[in-house]
Design a protein that fits this description.
It is a single chain. This protein has 294 residues and is of the alpha/beta class. Helices cover 30% and strands 26% of the residues. The chain contains eight helices and 16 strands. The chain is globular. The N and C termini lie close together (12 Å). Bound molecules: ribose-5-phosphate. The site of ribose-5-phosphate (R5P) has 14 residues, from β13 and α6.
Length: 294
């Protein structure tokens, strides 16, 4: 029997593209909430002996996680042979150490929660910083697809004379590769985060790049404060309005509008999280990874 794709919250364009191209069956499962706020699920398809691929982008993960674990467990209970998770955006990767005394290290706890329910995991550019490999925290086989070559291609097709700018040292892993692929120079800034919404960025003098189009590149745009702060420095140095590129565009609250207002000439993201800024399609990257396990 063909593998089957299951989703609850992510029946989006990326899901449809993957399902169409692989020709797998699919089911959109709608969790039922009882009056007491408990949840139940019904999967209609016959799962006996089948590989189930659960597709969920884990933006705003808290309300999704319990139904996700129930979905995996229900599928196993109904006879699924293997259950894999494709999470184009993998949540809870940034709290990877104890920044302050007494704090939780949720990257580790989240991986402990998911691992027992899945047989494998595929994601796109998870925020690997102090944790260097998903295998350090996930106890199941995992595979990471990268957006870098897709972003390089987009830059080459759309921007003349780009200067790539990464907000901090940790962004070098993405920015250097994208710069190499798009044959553009790059520089890294120094970022200090004081709180969720308070970020400082230090920028060197970039007078020599006055004729370039600044292209800010980061893995995640959440509050957009990192990019907004960078734009202030670019304005002070009389640089051209920048293009802002994020792999995962979370855009918490009014982040998108605020980033436009701050002076971004264009905001571009990959389609790991559905948003009006999605211009870079990563369906092929995920399909290649799915074929490893199925
Ligand atoms: C940092 O850990 C990430 O790579 C991004 O720089 C960060 O998530 C951006 O967050 P915000 O948009 O809230 O400044």
């Amino acid at each position: 029997m063909k593998p089957i794709l299951l989703t609850m919250y992510s029946e989006n364009i990326l899901f449809r593209q993957i399902q169409n191209q692989l020709g797998y069956d699919y089911e959109v499962v709608t969790p039922h909430t009882f009056p007491d706020q408990e949840t139940s699920l019904t999967i209609k398809a016959n799962l006996t002996g089948r590989t189930c691929i659960i597709f969920e982008s884990l933006i705003q993960p808290n309300h999704k996680i319990l139904p996700l674990l129930f979905l995996a467990e229900t599928a196993r209970d109904l006879g699924a042979k293997k259950i894999g998770l494709v999470a184009p955006y993998l949540a809870y990767m940034r709290q990877d150490i104890r920044f302050h005394a007494g704090e939780s290290i949720t990257a580790r706890y989240f991986s402990k929660l998911l691992s027992p329910y899945m047989d494998w995991l595929i994601t796109i550019d998870p925020h690997l910083h102090r944790i260097h490999d998903l295998q350090e925290i996930y106890t199941i086989p995992s595979s990471v697809a990268h957006a870098t070559s897709n972003i390089s291609a987009w830059i080459q097709n759309n921007i003349k004379n780009p200067l790539l700018i990464g907000p901090d040292k940790e962004s070098e892993q993405w920015v250097s590769e994208i710069a190499h692929g798009s044959k553009a120079p790059y520089l890294l800034l120094e970022k200090t985060r004081h709180s969720d919404h308070d970020v400082n960025v230090a920028m060197p003098n970039i007078d020599a790049f006055q004729s370039h189009i600044p292209v800010l590149v980061d893995d995640i745009i959440s509050t957009a404060k990192t990019m907004i702060e960078t734009i202030k420095h670019l304005k002070n140095q009389k640089m051209k309005p920048p293009v802002c590129i994020g792999i995962h565009g979370i855009f918490a609250n009014n982040a998108y509008e605020e980033l436009l207002q701050a002076g971004a000439s264009e905001i571009v993201t990959c389609n790991t999280i559905p948003h009006v800024t999605n211009q870079i399609d990563l369906s092929q990257n995920l399909i290649e990874k799915i074929k490893i396990y199925v």
